[in-house]
From TrEMBL:
Bilayer-crossing regions: 12-30
Positions in coiled-coil regions: 44-71
PANTHER family in the record: UPF0749 PROTEIN RV1825, UPF0749 PROTEIN YLXX
Keyword Membrane found: yes
Family: Belongs to the UPF0749 family.
InterPro entries: DUF881
Pfam families: DUF881
Keyword vocabulary terms for this entry: Coiled coil, Membrane, Transmembrane, Transmembrane helix
Name the UniProt record assigns to this protein: Division initiation protein
Length: 232
């Protein structure tokens, strides 16, 4: 009887120990799971906060970029460079000049070349307009810039490597009265043309449109050099 009681007691103790171990293991597992869950939540919250900060910084950078772009677009120096390079269309008041070959009957034995427009004639007109302060010029809608070429090409005149035939329409943006007066000086361009019967018509235009250079020149050998003031 005593042995049976002892065995029963040992069995109960063993069962109790097993349940204690299981309880401990379950407790440890629950705490571990809870800890991992808390760590994950903390991690998610941390990442979420960092994402918000990065989004705010990105928004600020985009705002600064737009501000810089707007400032660059409004830079007067940049506008002047585009105007001089002829890379943008321009509008403004000025004059329009129409030149055509002479309609005077040639006398026998006279040189017919005296009664037609040559590249030198166009160059004289352009030089007078530039000297009078023309800010933009075109010949038959070919924008004239520093590197534009005007030369004889058989019976035509090549402007920016595009052949043109008379009549030639020259547009010049600037003070209309000043530009017109420069061409009409005594002994000047217009008077010389009229002597040979070259047809010249000049009119003031309140709003001239001069197109951009159709094929801007690319530079292969010339390189920009930083100014000493900018380097300081």
């Amino acid at each position: 009887m005593k042995e049976i009681f002892t065995m029963d007691l040992k069995g109960k103790l063993l069962i109790a120990v097993v349940f204690m171990v299981l309880g401990f293991m379950l407790s440890v597992q629950y705490k571990t799971t809870e800890l991992q869950r808390n760590v994950r939540m903390d991690r998610v919250e941390d990442l979420s906060e960092r994402l918000k900060i990065m989004e705010a910084e990105n928004k600020q950078l985009l705002t600064e970029l737009e501000t810089l772009r707007a400032g660059a677009a409004k830079d007067p120096a940049d506008d002047r460079m585009k105007l001089m390079a002829g890379t943008t269309d321009v509008e403004g008041e000025g004059i329009e000049i129409l030149l055509d070959d002479s309609n005077i009957a040639k006398k026998s034995g006279e040189n017919p070349n005296l009664y037609i427009i040559h590249d030198e004639d166009l160059l004289r007109v352009l030089n007078e307009l530039r000297a009078a302060g023309a800010e933009a010029i075109s010949v038959n809608d070919q924008r004239i810039v520093a590197m534009s070429e005007i030369r004889c090409a058989g019976p035509t005149i090549s402007v920016n490597n595009v052949r043109s035939a008379p009549p030639y329409v020259i547009k010049a943006i600037g003070a209309p009265k000043t530009l017109s007066s420069a061409l009409r000086l005594r002994g000047g361009v217009v008077e010389t043309f009229e002597f040979w019967g070259i047809q010249v018509k000049i009119k003031t235009v309140e709003k001239l449109h001069i197109p951009a250079l159709k094929a801007p020149r690319s530079f292969e050998y010339a390189k920009t050099v930083e100014s000493k003031e900018a380097a300081k």
